[in-house]
Amino acid sequence: MTEKSNILGRMWQYVRRPRHVAYIAALLSIFTLVGYNIPFFDGVLERIEGGANGVLIVVGLVAIMLAAHFLLYYLLLYAARVVGKVIIAITLVGNALALYFINGYEVLLTSEMMGNVFNTRTGEATAYVSFSGFAYLLLLGIIPCVYLFAQRLDYGKLKHWAISSVVSIVVIILAGVANLSNTLWIDRNVPHLGSIILPWSYSVNSIRYYNSWKRLNQKEILLPDATIRNSDKQVCVLIIGESSRRANFSIYGYSRSTTPLIEQDSVVALMAESAATYTTAGVKAIIDHKPTGDLYEILPNYLFRTGVDVIWRTNNWGESPLHIDRIESVEELKKLYPEEDASYDGILLSGLKETIAESQKDKVFVVLHTSTSHGPLYYKKYPKQFEIYTPVCTTVEMSKADSEELINAYDNSILYTDYIIHSAIEELRGLEGWQSTLIFVSDHGESLGEGNLYMHGMPKNLAPREQYEIPFIVWTSDRAAVVARDVDQYHIFHSILHRLSIDSPVYNPEYDIFNTTNDIFTNL
């Protein structure tokens, strides 16, 4: 016992031995390169040709990264002292977690993905907890942080810091100049490689997301006033699906019978693409009147201001700011309907027919924002009676999952989606004296291991079709003609204006799937 104590004591003394700050900065720089950026260099090697130019690119990137990280760490430790250690520790933990998701889920840490991270609810975040994730956090995050805080630093003289900083900058400049001929290669590959380089990818893209969030949360631009054309009783129910990809709906030709109920409901299944591959942008496109980076008045707000009874029920997130009276979360619905199971999206249907029938207005618009196919734990998104395809994947580490089990769990979530759509149609069928419309559209698609990609969030120009080919399903009580076939999410806005008999200067008949006067429908 004494011998072991002596060994631990000597180890602790070695760790606590004063070291020059430049030494620690260099050590951290090498550790960042080797410990966190293997996926980055794997991506580089996949994208370069052999020969001297390929060597030049790799050597240049190594030199730039070592020098840039050394400069950053030296500055933080020398100028900020303890605060600098805290900032670096946060970065090390962030690197460890980011690397876990890059390796485990093949994610790209774009500004959109960082938006997903910041908007992820606690319940969704806990779904990613795994032994591998803990191992990454411990070995690549916590232990390096303990080592960093245990160090006693010799800060040296200011001139030493200045010389080291100048040398680092010179190395970065020389490596950059040497690769000027590779500018086109850099431009072509920066969207992918820039999203996996650590810590810069999530740091820079977090700032980019924050800036875009600030712009989106500015006061919305009001649309021109609209008017209600008649006093007919009309209701539109919009179901926003989560991560539903068209390829796994049997109504679109999938080999498994995943949509048996709606196939008997006289629905129309349209071919659609999402505007993006992540929730916030997908939902915004569904309720926006055109593609724009500006915050125009969205459909529920516009209808509410026009005099429509608007009800938004949600078991999800990512909506643009809503300015309506009735926003009902699952928690609130559970209070209203205590006998209902709040574990699944079916609670969003509670009392739907009665709610519509009791409205004091002639026009009603209801949104059901579901989360039915949100990964990675698809098997937790549906009641047990919908577990038709077995066995199912129960691990959050999708890259290690059995492919068949993963698809089984996902297909069961589509079976439950089929049930929700069918149940909503049944509720509308029970309404007397109402012209009813139901539209189901997903916010985006989902990858289930194709090309070693999982879930969603890839930039659309890089994303596989599974992440943006979505279902767009329509049912009407009066068998209204649906004349469009290839559509996108922006068709929702104008089609619902039509079905609620609302006249508006922003109405675009080319994006109205019910407008029989048009021969040509264009996609945005």
Please tag this protein with its features.
524 residues, alpha/beta, Alkaline Phosphatase, subunit A, 8-stranded mixed beta sheet, two-stranded parallel sheet, 17 helices, 46% helix, 12% strand, disordered C terminus
Domain count: the total is 2
Q: What's the shape? A: elongated
Q: Structural class of the secondary elements?
A: alpha/beta
CATH architecture of the largest domain: 3-Layer(aba) Sandwich
Description:
The chain has an 8-stranded mixed beta sheet, with helices on both faces. It has a two-stranded parallel sheet with strand order 1-2. Strand 10 and strand 11 (about 455) form a beta hairpin. By secondary structure, the chain is an alpha/beta fold. The protein is built from 17 helices and 14 strands. It is about 45% helix and about 10% strand.
Tell me briefly what this model is.
The chain folds into 2 domains: 2-216, no CATH class; 229-511, Alkaline Phosphatase, subunit A (3-Layer(aba) Sandwich). Helices cover 46% and strands 12% of the residues. It has helices at residues 2-16, 21-36, 38-47, 52-80, 82-105, 111-119, 122-126, 131-150, 158-178, 183-193, 200-216, 279-286, 299-306, 330-336, 352-357, 403-429, 491-499; strands at 19-20, 153-154, 227-228, 234-241, 268-273, 309-314, 326-329, 363-369, 435-442, 447-448, 454-455, 469-476, 486-488, 502-503.
